[in-house]
């Protein structure tokens, strides 16, 4: 990439010097032409006026004036034509095709463009690298799982498994904590597991902080133990 920038800088410098020489020579030649025409016009008009050939004075003056006017008009038209032609050139176009450059320069530019493309591709964030707080990492076993919502939904699983025993039916007035205490009183689940579940459940439901993947994993292990105590035979 450094070689390309150096090559472009040298090319711009050479083009700039060439443009300066071309413009300077053009102005010098134009200035000399105007002086030569002015001297010749003065000589013709002066000689005609001195000898009393006044019609020649008017003819010479009119001819030089008309010539100057036509020259300025043609130059102005040419300048506008060049400006329009330059404006019509597509700006995004860059002569970097193989037939526009020497093979060595083309190969150098191609290799550098491939290198830049590889850097851009490797620096682009991958889905598996995105780690949103409270959500499972894409591509993992927890993909698209919101930990808080999933933890709150586990209570319905516990209630469904507890209903296998009709005496453990939950009353409408029972809160989550009261129902877990109810299951503990009827020896359906262990007291320590029940209190740990309520603590994690309430943190997920009422806390503003998101749940980490490690906390969610430990909580689900706790839920699995509770479900097995209630007769759940799955994994």
Automatic annotation (TrEMBL):
Instruction: List residues traversing the bilayer.
Output: 26-45, 57-76
What are the subcellular locations of this protein? Answer: Membrane
**One Pfam short name:** NICE-3
Main subcellular location:
membrane
Q: Which family does it belong to?
A: Belongs to the DLT1 family.
**The protein's name in its UniProt record:** Defect at low temperature protein 1
Membrane topology, as annotated, equals: Multi-pass membrane protein
Keywords on record? Membrane, Transmembrane, Transmembrane helix
Q: Signal sequence span per UniProt?
A: none
The role this protein plays is: Required for growth under high-pressure and low-temperature conditions.
> What are the record's GO terms for cellular component?
membrane
């Amino acid at each position: 990439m450094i070689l390309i920038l150096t090559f472009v800088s040298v090319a711009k410098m050479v083009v700039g010097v060439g443009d300066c020489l071309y413009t300077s020579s053009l102005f010098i030649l134009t200035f000399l032409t105007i002086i030569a025409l002015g001297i010749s016009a003065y000589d013709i008009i002066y000689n005609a006026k001195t000898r009393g050939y006044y019609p020649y004075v008017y003819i010479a003056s009119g001819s030089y004036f008309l010539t100057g006017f036509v020259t300025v008009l043609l130059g102005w038209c040419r300048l506008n034509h060049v400006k329009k032609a330059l404006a019509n050139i597509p700006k995004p176009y860059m002569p970097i095709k193989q037939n526009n450059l020497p093979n060595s320069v083309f190969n150098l530019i191609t290799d550098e463009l491939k290198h830049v493309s590889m850097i851009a591709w490797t620096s682009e964030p991958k889905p598996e690298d995105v780690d949103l707080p409270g959500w499972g990492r894409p591509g993992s076993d927890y993909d698209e799982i919101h930990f808080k919502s999933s933890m709150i939904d586990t209570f319905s699983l516990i209630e469904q498994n507890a209903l296998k025993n009709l005496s453990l039916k939950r009353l409408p007035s029972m809160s989550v904590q009261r129902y877990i205490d109810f299951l503990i009183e009827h020896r359906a689940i262990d007291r320590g597991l029940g209190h740990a579940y309520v603590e994690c459940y309430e943190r997920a439901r009422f806390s503003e902080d998101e749940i980490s993947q490690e906390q969610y994993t430990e909580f689900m292990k706790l839920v699995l133990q509770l479900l097995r105590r209630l007769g759940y035979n799955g994994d």
